[in-house]
Design a protein that fits this description.
The complex is a heterodimer of chains A (about 350) and B (about 160). Chain A is α+β, with helices and mostly antiparallel strands. Chain A has helices at about 5-25, 30-45, 45-65, 65-105, 265-270, 275-315, 325-330, 335-340, and strands at about 105-110, 125, 140, 145-155, 160, 170-175, 180-185, 195-200, 210-215, 225-235, 240-250, 260. In chain A, the strands form two sheets. Chain A has a six-stranded antiparallel beta sheet. A six-stranded antiparallel β-barrel of chain A has the order 6-7-8-11-10-9. The chains are: A alpha+beta (about 350), B mainly alpha (about 160).
Chain lengths: ~350, ~160
């Protein structure tokens, strides 16, 4: 073996022995010194590699946990959907609480009991009866407006007819008091069956779409001022002496869960102030909608007039438009043009 | 070894070390692929035994830093594997790719034996199970990866050699 190669071999062996010796030394280091040494290496050379390893471990965890995360997400979505219903219920209860504050006295709170069968959607079983002070023919309301009328009263429960019932009637008026009539269920098939009619409105009284209709207080059953619904449109009537309007009810049957049953004393006192703000804002909306409609009509009429004007101006012979007269055309004969340079 | 091949080997070495810290944690096998052993062997057959021992030592130290309980055991095992592979490359590291896989298999086997003995953590039946069952499985997986690396790298290295 040449001397150079032998020297190299010795150097290799020496390096290997040194590495082994250091490794053994590290193995027998006291825990504190060993940890400190490892920490130094981790903090310098190994730091980027450790970061890579951490990312890889996270990626693995994400991969492994994917199925369980999907399950968690699914249940969260389901819960959030339930939360929507809970939030809606909460809002309803808050508004009912607000109604209770507005009414202050003379009412019995009740729950619409679940478990109604098919075909029973025109009546409502309420959780309050005669023991709670409920009397027959008491008005049933919610924060949104009129629900119906108590028809039967038991000791602990009562049965109310709701506004879709064929026998439901209420004397009503427009919020401004210009039109009076009788509100009853609109007897139609399908979706229209869930609307109301305002019948017998004098022909001179015209109501705009969106006009709020409230109870008039006539008849002694319903106090004045309970919101019933809003006008959708006028129905065609064969009788020419009165108008009939289609109304959108203020209370949807599907939303009825908690109600207030008004006492006769409260009927006598009146409840106009309770729905006053609601009715007023509806009336304002109708007025502003009418204004904007008028403005739009005025603008479109002005535009039509302007267009007609400009057409007429263009058609006049003395207008600025270039008209070719016969004599000038004759002057431009071929000989004329040939004479030109 | 010319500079082009050196660069390629260094690049592959770094890539394998990177894989050790990225792919290995993702796979998380009990008998996992040891990319570091493949990296050390890849370098060991191309450098002098002393350099191979040093590379193995440093790489083992890096691995040990993340497992302080066995601090030094990895460095010792890698030093032995690097030095041994570099010293025996003429005898074992043939042109035959399958033999290279055996070379990687033996390298990983030696590494694990030295490591578990040096760290003195396992004993009795656990040590036996580790050495008879898990270590050969890990060596097999590592040998397959080594085979793949050699197969991919060989054409490039040979082309550069000519």
């Amino acid at each position: 073996m040449p001397r150079g190669a032998r020297t190299d071999s010795r150097a290799d062996t020496a390096i290997a022995i040194a590495c082994v010796a250091v490794s053994l030394l590290l193995l027998i280091l006291p825990n504190g010194a060993r940890d400190r040494t490892a920490a130094v290496i981790r903090g310098t050379v190994v730091a980027p590699l450790a970061a890579m390893q951490e990312r890889a471990a996270l990626a693995r965890r994400a991969f492994v946990d994917y199925d369980s995360l999907v399950r968690v997400a699914d249940s969260t979505i389901r819960r959030s959907q339930q939360l929507d219903a809970v939030a809606a219920e909460n809002a309803r209860l808050r508004s009912l609480l607000g109604l209770g504050r507005s009414l202050s006295w003379g009412f019995v709170p009740a729950e619409a009991l679940a478990g109604r069968g098919m075909g029973d959607d025109r009546t409502l079983v309420l959780s309050a009866g005669s023991r709670a002070g409920v009397e027959r023919f008491s008005a049933v309301v919610t924060a949104d407006g009129l629900v119906g009328l108590v028809d039967q009263v038991d000791a602990t429960t009562s049965v109310a007819i709701t506004w879709p019932h064929p026998e439901f009637r209420v004397s009503a008026t427009s919020a401004d008091g210009t039109a009076f009539g009788i509100v009853a269920a609109h007897q139609a098939l399908g979706v229209d069956g869930w609307l109301l009619e305002l019948r017998g409105v004098p022909f001179r009284s015209s109501l705009r779409a969106g006009t709020p209709i409230v109870s008039s207080g006539l008849g002694g059953i319903y106090p004045r001022g309970i919101l019933i619904g809003t006008v959708i449109e006028e129905l065609r009537s064969t009788a020419g002496w009165a108008r009939t309007y289609l109304l959108r009810p203020a209370v949807r049957p599907s939303d009825i869960t908690s109600v207030m049953i008004l006492n006769p004393e409260r009927n006598a006192e009146g409840v106009e102030s309770v729905w006053a703000a609601q009715v007023e804002s509806m009336s304002k909306r109708v007025v502003s909608a009418g204004d904007s409609l008028q403005r739009r009509q005025r603008d479109s009429l002005a535009a039509v007039a302007a267009r007609a004007d400009s057409i007429a101006r263009a058609a006049r012979p003395d207008s600025g438009a270039r008209v070719v007269r016969p004599d000038s055309a004759a002057r431009r004969s071929p000989t004329d043009s040939a004479r030109r340079p | 070894m010319n500079s082009g091949r050196s660069w390629l080997t260094a690049l592959m070495f770094a890539f394998l070390v990177g894989l050790h810290f990225t792919v290995r944690p993702i796979l998380d096998w009990r008998s996992g692929i040891d990319f570091m052993v493949v990296a050390v062997l890849l370098v060991a057959v191309r450098v002098r035994p002393g350099t191979a021992a040093l590379v193995g030592f440093l790489l083992g130290l890096i691995a040990d830093a993340l497992t302080p309980e066995a601090f030094g055991a990895g460095a010792l095992a890698m030093t032995i594997v690097g030095f041994g592979a570099s010293s025996l490359k003429a005898a074992f590291f043939a042109e035959n790719v399958a033999l290279n896989a055996v070379f990687v298999f033996v390298g990983k086997l030696v590494h694990d034996i030295v490591f578990v003995v040096a760290e003195r953590r396992l004993g009795g039946m656990t040590l036996l199970t580790q050495l008879v069952w898990w270590t050969p499985l890990a060596a097999l997986a590592t040998a397959l990866v080594g085979l793949l690396v050699m197969t991919l790298l060989r054409p490039t290295l040979e082309r550069r050699r000519t």
